[in-house]
Amino acid sequence: MTEKIIRVGGVDLCVETFGDGPAVLLIGGHSASMLWWPEEFCARLAAGGRTVIRYDNRDTGRSTQYPLTKPGYSMTDLVADAVGILDALGVERAHVVGQSMGGAIAQNLALRHPDRLASLTLLSTTAGGDDLPGTADRMLAHFTSLTEPDWTDRAAIIEHTVRDFRAYAGSLPFDEAEIRATAGRDVDRTTDMRVARTNHSHIEGDEEPLRDRLGEITAPTLVLHGTEDPLFPLPHGEMLAREIPDARLVPMPGAGHELPRAVWDLVLREIVQHSR
């Protein structure tokens, strides 16, 4: 396991690798540093004979941060970051796993750089569409009631994070102690948590309409989706599996918009099988 700073496209990206074998690139979601791909999860995936790569997206963790609400980069840049990391590590093709916003990055990567993907796994994500169910009422209520913490108060930031993660969870056991511990480590290694939790909502919009292009994805695709996802309900995952050629859907029973320990056995088994 090694963590290092890689210079990509004029920015610093913090990258960590585990294991040895075919490369699996993990792309995190909105405001999520690499820590939200838990170390134990990565180690278990690496034990399946894989080189696992996780990294801090811009504005998170130890990667380059920008002025508050002014990230100054686009989806194109985030896709280029993923390619730059593979180049820096000497990886010609990787099995790409994207969660939530990371799933949008992964879809764009599959469309713009199909030669760099050995396979694609989409976890708790979507390509949008007016025909799909919207965010659950309980999630909307959470958004309405959520107030910013004192960003100078470590304990307040951790409490804020725990409350946020609980809102995204399904009916599977919620491991508050683990979320709390990870949130604490996140605070300790992030230059500015307010920036980390804010700037991804202000990314410049240069995305291509993904839904219209799903049929062009050529990478073998696995879709993993919580049956109780309150942000992108299950039909979003069903749509991806239906519209990406030969994609396969594996529901995560009881999971919300999350990767709880209770589904790790299922998810790890599926990713290892899919990346053979």
What does this structure look like?
It is a single chain. This protein has an 8-stranded mixed beta sheet with strand order 1-2-4-3-5-6-7-8, sandwiched between helices. Helix 5 (154-168) packs across helix 6 (176-189). It has helices at residues 39-47, 75-88, 101-112, 137-145, 154-168, 176-189, 193-198, 234-243, 264-274; strands spanning 2-8, 11-18, 23-27, 51-55, 94-99, 117-123, 221-226, 248-252. The protein contains 9 helices and 8 strands. The two termini are 22 Å apart. The model has no long low-confidence stretch (mean pLDDT 96). The radius of gyration is 17 Å and the shape is globular. With 276 residues, the protein is of the alpha/beta class. The longest helix has 15 residues, at 154-168.
Summarize the model shown.
The chain is about 35% helix and about 20% strand. The protein is an alpha/beta fold.
What is the 3D form?
A: globular
Number of strands: 8
Q: How are the strands ordered across the major sheet?
A: 1-2-4-3-5-6-7-8
- The Cα radius of gyration reads 17 Å
Count the helices. How many? 9
Range of strand content: 15-25%
Q: Low-confidence parts lasting 5 or more residues at pLDDT below 50? A: none
